[in-house]
Amino acid sequence: MNASEGPLIYIIAGEPSGDLLGGRLMAALKAGANGAVRFAGIGGETMRAEGLHSLFPMTELSVMGLVEVLPRLPNILRRIKLTLSDIETKRPDAVLTIDSWGFTGRIHGGLKKRGSTIPRIHYVAPMVWAWKSGRTKTLARVLDLLLTLLPNEPEWFEKEGLRSVHVGHPVIEGGAGRGDGPGFRTRHGISAEAKVVCVLPGSRHSETAKLLPPFAATLAILACRHPDLIAVVPTVETVAEEVAAAARFWPLPTIVIRGAAEKHDAFAACDVALAASGTVALELAMAGLPAVITYKVSKLSAFVATRFLGLSLKFVTLVNILVDEPVMPELLQDRCRPDALAEAVDHLLGDPAAREAQRSGARRALAKLGLGGRSPSARAAETVLDFIGEKR
Predict the structure, then answer these.
(1) Is 278 helix (H, G, I), strand (E, B) or coil?
(2) Mean pLDDT (whole number) for 183-191
(3) What is the homologous superfamily of the domain 3-169+372-391 according to CATH?
(4) Counting CB atoms within 10 angstroms of each CB, which of 30, 61, 227, 382 has the fewest?
């Protein structure tokens, strides 16, 4: 390889939230290296926009839950083998994976088992403070560098000898708090007086399959209580067709949108949100949009997670975890029912004090993620480029 070409980074994301982080990180890496950096790997639409030619569609990896994964396991195992072979063929200067440890951890483990000396980097630490802490040893065995989103995470891994750097949470640089609400309403013919609910049923098929039916029933209840209610549904490539098809039968005017800028404008235009648990909850917090958070996996997946894998979270939404308070209502598993969801959303719609209390709690949580500081993607890119420079 000609050194003037810049390093080749093999970058892997397995789901839309990781793809979003990956796209921002790729842009920051290009800026930090003055364009002298190349990419290969696996990603979605955001990473493709930054120049990545994905080895295979990222949608094949976007699945959550034990029962949901099992039918797709043979294909995932084939994709692991293909990815390992592609890495060995391309011989990058580093392998940089983003979240999705179920897949990316096997890539790092497979490289180590094959005796690869390619530096291995992971971005977004698994929540070892929620799961059995023995997982820190697993990461330390297969990684050379870990980039964390939360300030308390490096200590968990450094005690096992894994070099770990806190870079901050990229949600604070994503633009979620800079949307144009009036412009969105004008573009879509929504009056200033209309009540608008933002509906976010997830970015994986395993999520939308579980959440679209109760969301439809929830909206039916809310439409009876609020005849002028309008639903706006930001969606992503992985589930766009499925979501749009379901939304055509919802019992109220519904607008399905794509793209980050349009999503951020929608956040600013809406009164409340009903959302699947995940990174989007932080985006809603950044936008100051009060939300009800929900999630549902199969009963077997939930049982295994709590009984055998040691999951012991008081909350699942990071905003709530950071301040140790139920800032955003969480209705999970058996509580993910249309009547309960409608009641929680209706409460936010009708109570300005409840909306403001949620915004206040969200601001306290976001301050702990680095709001007001240097761009997390720039910090992550600098750390990665310095590390590669050391190894080269």
Answers:
(1) coil
(2) 97
(3) Glycogen Phosphorylase B; (3.40.50.2000)
(4) 227
